[in-house]
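Can't paste images in this forum, so I'm doing it all in text. The chain is below; anyone willing to post the predicted C-alpha cells underneath?
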Amino acid sequence: WRACQPNGSKVLTVGRWMGRLGNRLWQVHTAVRLAQAAGARFVQLPNKLDAQVFKVPLRLPVRGRAPSCEFEADADAKGAYAYDCEFVFFSSCRTTVLERKQLYASHFLPYLRREVLPSCKAGGHDRVTLHFRNGDVAKSYSAEKIVGYEGYHDQPPCLYYHRVIETGLGGRPFREVQLVFSKEEPQNPCIADIRSRHQDKLVLSPTNTVVGDTCLLLKAKNLAVTTSSLATTLKMMNSKISRLFFVNTLVEDSGLHFVNFDLNTSEVCDAFPKAVGYKVMQLKPRPASPDEYFLRFPADALVESRCPQA
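Text version of the structure:
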C-alpha cells in the first residue's frame, strides 16, 4: 500500500475504472479491504461509480479495521506479483465469501439509490430468478479465449438453468421463472431455449431498465447467478435470498476469478447456507459449435455440490 500511496496519505486511491458496474464494485471492495488493513480512512474513486444504482461518494469513508492482510495477487505479464496501483483489482487481501458479503453490506448498501428497491415486485417462494450474460461473451464457451477475457467469462450451458428450474425447489420444479438480462446483442442462447422448454411455467421478462433489473436481483428469494461480475456482486447485497444457485465454468479452481466469482463451495455455504453449486467440466474434444455446447451439453459433465442445509 505504501508503495502506491506515498507521503503517508490516509486515502487509498483507485486510479481508473476497469469495465462496468460489476467490475467497479469488485475494484472498490478490494480497495476498501486493503484500506482497512493499511489504516487508510478513505477510498478515493476516479469518478462516479455509476449514475443509476448507487450514489457512492467520490471519497468513500472506510468503516472498520482489519487486523492483518494476507496479501495475494495475480501475476502480471512478466510473471511478477506486486500491488496493483492503477486498478486496485489484481491484488488484494485474502477474504472469505462471508467477509466479502459483510463488506458489501456495510460499504455499498447504504448508498443504494432510494428509487431502486421500489421499482420491482418480489416473487414468492416458488419463483426463481435467473441471470444471463448477453453481449460480448454471451456465446463464450469451453475456455474460449476472447481477446481481453482469456477464458474467464465462459457462460454455462443451458443445462445449468434447466436443472435449477426443474429441481431447485427442494427437488421439485419452480412454478415461476423470472428472467434477467440486458438488451445487448448477441443474446444468450439459453433465453430462447428456456422459453421454449418451460411453457408450462410462468416465464417473466426483465423490466428492461437497469434500475428495475437490479431490483429483481436484490429482491430474489431464489437466485441463479452466472459468470458475471454484476450478478456476483449484487447477490452479496440481497438480504432476501433463501436459495442461491451458482456455477463454475473456470478451467482452474484458483486465482483471482475463482475468488471474485465466489466459487469456493465451503465458503459459499457459510454465507448462503442453502446454496447449490454446479461445476461445468471441460469437454474433450471441445464442442464444435455454440449450439452443441449450450443446447446439448452432456448431463454427466455438470456436477452438482450442495450445502448441508440445501
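The CA atoms of residues 10 and 40 lie 4 Å apart. The chain has a mean pLDDT of 91.
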